């Protein structure tokens, strides 16, 4: 009995302990939950605050009446050589077609009209920028950024490349972020020119897909990889595109240029602005005062943030080449990549210093970048130009994909994954982001029109052109669908690294700047690939009025020589259109040496690329590309008969379309031609001769319909010291040269068909 009592007491005692332990744990739990809640709330409040400030600020900016400003797209890409050409319509007319620029409306409109163009946010305010952002307390917990498009991390997070992700990110991706993260060692590599040649070891995969196949919407599906990556079906999970935007927190909402706002400085600072302008040919003074990791508006079409991409996208090396780039813009470019790219996809950032002359781009840059283990710096020992500089970057890149960017850009939220997704779906796709505009004067980030694609006009002048309404409707194209692009702008694109080498990279004979975008575009399309603009990927770029660096040789000569190389290798018989639009002088080899093309021509054969006619018909059918300016019978108004050629002599006959002897053409090089024979003026004899055609020979050229002048119908010998015209002799059906006379009908000629207006 006693024993029983003891046991009961004992049990009661331990029961008390148990109750006590139980009660204590509940209190503890409640306390803990409260503490956790406080900490989450703390961070959330912080994020919310940032978000609210940002939203409020954006609203304020948008509500401000804008200066109505016509969007002036850069004209710096127009070559002086092209402008010089008197036969060409002014390139600025053709530069951007179908483009309308709207002004920003209020926030509601902005949502609705998100995809319409938006003008810069010109504000007359002068922003306060003295406030230095407070840093988060070290060790603060990182939590998923519940509901918000913008994620925030503190400086230490940036350094460790740890980022805050959206809640609905697939677990796998989070995993990938954590496991693939490595803190590498910062390094500087010095390259010499011999290292720049493309590797010859890479073999070419025969293209097996029609690049003309119409657009595929951005839907990830298990996909059959082509080429030598894998032939197996890769099954992979998918996740929503990551909307990363890491920054030193909190973001100072009052900082100059914050949220991509335009800044108008007080006129008292004009002098400073002017003084520093030439360092970059944009507002360098202002750029230096804007945070290097400022926020910019998420300009993507709304559906983009909901789009899903594969979990196992290839990693990329981002390559920035620069020569004498402005410090703040170079840094802003690098930060925008570090802050807005999923770390597991960003293998490295390679900065290729193309032999810059500025001291700040040497040790200070090394030092600054040493805090970012992913950034590598390659120094070239002599100036190579952007084309060979890119090759130097590619040569040391270790990512599966190469992403080339200019060194004055700002990558927007979610910019990278949609590009990599396209390559994942087909390694021969070469995706380009939408290139938005960072205003060179007020540094505002400007949204650009949808449905723009890169095109060219003769003589290989790059431009933008809007897809026609008809085309959009017919192909049912939505704002987020990839846009097939006949040529890329050049500076911003991703390409599978192996594929880049299979294509033989760039022609390394291209010098300094210009034309390489045409070369790579023709090569990609004609040799089995595709170029696309991806509306869900957006990157701002500062368009400058002039190149802010020197050219080792004459700028114009450099660019036109590059273009001539491209024309000779890729344009086939259409190269006459290039030369005929103001570049005739390049045909004279004694004046211009365009260098050896054997390797490039061999490469095109080896890759079994399609011809330029195929490209025109399938990729860019809208281009007006008649092979001759005019053709058919050549009717003389005075004689009312047609020119006819027998062997190498000329006479007149009754016009007859069925007679081959009466068929002539008027070529882009202004020759009057039948087969291989050309009619040549012979000034000394006031006569003509029939000779073998040779495009390089300027003395065979005649002006005809070259202006609306009273001599438009005449054949004017181009190289005569005075105006001499081809005239039919009524007495004996012969021909001779005589001084031009606008009223003389025997000097007036008409072809059956004219294909070009001038
Ligand atoms: O000798 C040089 N070495 C270099 O490293 C010359 C230039 N560069 C660097 C330069 O610092 C810059 O980062 O190369 C990059 C491009 O030079 P930019 O910015 O002077 O060129 P751009 O923007 O005026 O011109 C466009 O056309 C060029 C033609 O060769 C290149 O393809 C550029 O990359 C390209 N830029 C774009 O496509 C951005 C959008 C422009 C448009 C339309
Ligand atoms: Mn540029």
Secondary structure layout plus pairing:
Elements: H1 2-63, H2 80-84, H3 91-95, E1 96-97, H4 107-112, H5 155-159, H6 171-180, E2 188-191, E3 223-224, E4 233-234, E5 238-240, H7 270-277, H8 284-287, E6 308-310, E7 316-322, H9 327-340, E8 346-353, H10 363-369, E9 375-380, H11 385-396, E10 401-405, E11 409-411, H12 416-425, E12 429-438, E13 445-446, E14 452-457, E15 461-466, H13 469-474, E16 483-484, E17 493-496, H14 497-502, H15 516-526, E18 530-542, H16 555-570, H17 575-580, H18 598-606, H19 612-618, E19 630-636, E20 641-646, E21 649-653, E22 664-666, E23 672-674, E24 677-682, E25 687-692, E26 702-703, E27 716-717, E28 724-728, E29 735-739, E30 749-754
Helix pairs in contact: 15-16
The structure holds ligand LR7 and manganese (II) ion (MN).
3D architecture notes:
By secondary structure, this protein is an alpha+beta fold. Among the domains are: about 25-65; about 630-755, Trefoil (Acidic Fibroblast Growth Factor, subunit A). About 30% of the residues lie in helices and about 20% in strands. It contains 19 helices and 30 strands. The strands form eight sheets. Strands 19, 20, 21, 22, 23, 24, 25 and 30 form an eight-stranded antiparallel sheet that branches. Helix 15 packs parallel to helix 16 (about 555-570). The chain is elongated, with a radius of gyration of 33 Å. The N and C termini lie far apart (about 125 Å). The model is unreliable at about 30-185 and about 195-230 (pLDDT under 50). It binds ligand LR7 and manganese (II) ion. Ligand LR7 binds near residues 512, 516, 517 and 549.
